[in-house]
Write a sequence for this structure.
């Protein structure tokens, strides 16, 4: 019976203190929803550590701690995303020398292949992977990789014969 009373005390404490705690948490984050999440997380932490609901100062300190944790986590994520964006800018796209029309036609024909065939063709020809390596990378058998390669070559040959 005592657990029910304690549980009810927590509910009353939450309903009384939550609005002020949300307002307090709101100074750390941009949205009210984030502030509400912070308060809820803080209450859960506070309750799991079995602190007294009379210790309001510690409850506010817990809200502050949760808010700062969220800010640090968001800052780290933003930094990782910015670094990933910078790395993407520094990657070089394959450069093809399109001096004659046949190379343009070949590039267009490769682009028209089904994705499964195109990725095997690129891995085999331009990256010089074995069918076993291709199969491992794509999660297919090496025989399937070899078949897709043959189908891609056949489609390219058919396309060039039709144009000549």
């Amino acid at each position: 019976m005592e657990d029910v009373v304690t549980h009810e005390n927590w509910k009353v404490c939450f309903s009384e203190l939550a609005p002020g705690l949300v307002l307090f948490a709101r100074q750390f984050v941009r949205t009210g929803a984030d502030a509400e999440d912070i308060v809820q997380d803080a209450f859960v932490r506070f309750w799991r550590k079995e602190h007294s609901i009379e210790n309001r100062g510690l409850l506010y300190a817990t809200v502050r701690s949760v808010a700062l944790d969220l800010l640090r986590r968001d800052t780290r994520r933003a930094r990782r995303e910015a670094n990933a964006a910078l790395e993407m800018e520094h990657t070089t796209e394959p450069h093809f020398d399109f001096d004659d029309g046949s190379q343009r036609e070949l590039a267009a024909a490769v682009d028209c292949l089904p994705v499964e065939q195109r990725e095997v063709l690129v891995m085999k020809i331009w990256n010089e992977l074995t069918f076993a390596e291709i199969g491992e990378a794509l999660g297919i058998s090496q025989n399937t990789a070899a078949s897709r390669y043959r189908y891609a070559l056949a489609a390219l040959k058919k396309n060039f014969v039709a144009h000549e």
About this structure: The domain at 101-163 is CATH 1.10.10.10 (Arc Repressor Mutant, subunit A). The chain has seven helices and no strands. Confidence is low (pLDDT under 50) at residues 1-5. The radius of gyration is 30 Å.
